[in-house]
Amino acid sequence: MRMSVLSVLMPAAILVAALVYVAFYAGGYDVFQKIVIVVIAFIVVGVAEALLWMAWAGSKGMMAWQQPK
Question: What is the three-class DSSP state of 3?
């Protein structure tokens, strides 16, 4: 249950933070630079989700290089 909640809240928080930054704090940037900030936020979300689920799978012994317990 915790993993499901983290899988929803973590990307939402990161993307909201990126959009708030772009909307209110990145006043000197042009549109392309603002789009790049949001794209980088999506990349960070993808990496964070992958690490989250890889850690979960590793703790359950689902990784191919681990021996079953």
Answer: helix
